[in-house]
Amino acid sequence: MKYIIILLFAAFPFLSIAQVSSNIVISSSDGTNVTVNIITVVDDNNENIDISNCLPSGSNIPDMNCVVDSNPEVENFTIVIDKPSDYLNGVSTLDMVIINQHIISTNDLDFAHLIPADINQDHKISVLDLIEIRRLILGIDASIPAGSWRFLKEEVAAESNLFNTDDFVLTFNRSEFPINSIQVLALKSGDVNNSAF
User: Fold this and answer.
1) Nearest CA among 60, 57, 66, 65 for reference residue 80
2) DSSP string of 42-99?
3) Alpha-carbon distance 67 to 41, whole Å?
């Protein structure tokens, strides 16, 4: 299922740490809240950035404007999202039918559906993807080697029709801040008909 993860960042970077509010809203396309396991932020050296002063009370979701302001020595910030999920969540024989229709050119998939269809992440949709899904459904494989969820900037999905690994890196340069809103598309591997929850 595709989810839109809307990261709403504070428009006012001058707010004090005590005024940090929950500014990242994570929801599905139908408005249902989506639970993510961990959101971390790393620097250019892939080192975790301390976000503890930028977390609203009881939340694991940081205010990115606060994170940037609190780390003046860092040039680029990468948001890392982890979503817990059953590997079979949303994966069914209907997904296999849709992928097969794409392979035989009776139903072309758009970019946001090509990503879940490419379950083995070889940057093409083929019978090998169907085999992987079949193995999952039959219980032969217990997981998806490349991970169950993929996250990318929503504008990339709207503009692209090609696979590019860089599209799945949520990196922002210091010069882009303050940021009011970042929209991230969450795609469940193997779930072409958007039935995951």
Assistant:
1) 60
2) E-TTSPBPP-GGGPPTT-S---HHHHHHH-TT-SEEEEEEE----TTTT--HHHHHHH
3) 9
Give the predicted TM-score (pTM) of the model. Answer: 0.74
Residues 34 and 5: beta-carbon distance below 8 Å = yes
Q: What digits encode the pLDDT tens for the residues 99-115?
A: 999 999 998 888 778 88
In three-state secondary structure terms, 8 is strand
Cβ(63)–Cβ(56) below 8 Å: yes
Is 100 buried (19+), middle (13-18) or exposed (0-12) by CB count in 10 A? middle
Contact 62, 22 (CB under 8 A): no
Q: Round to whole Å and give the CA distance between 22 and 54.
A: 10
Same domain, 7 and 100: no
Do residues 53 and 79 share a domain? yes
Per DSSP, what are the bridge partners of residue 171?
78
The residue whose two tokens read 């910030």 is: 77
What Å distances lie between residue 62 and 81, 128, 134, 155, 194, CA to CA? 12, 39, 38, 22, 28
What total number of domains does the chain contain?
2
Tell me which residue has tokens 């794409």: 102
122 in a structural domain: yes
Low-confidence stretches of the chain (pLDDT beneath 50): 1-23, 27-31
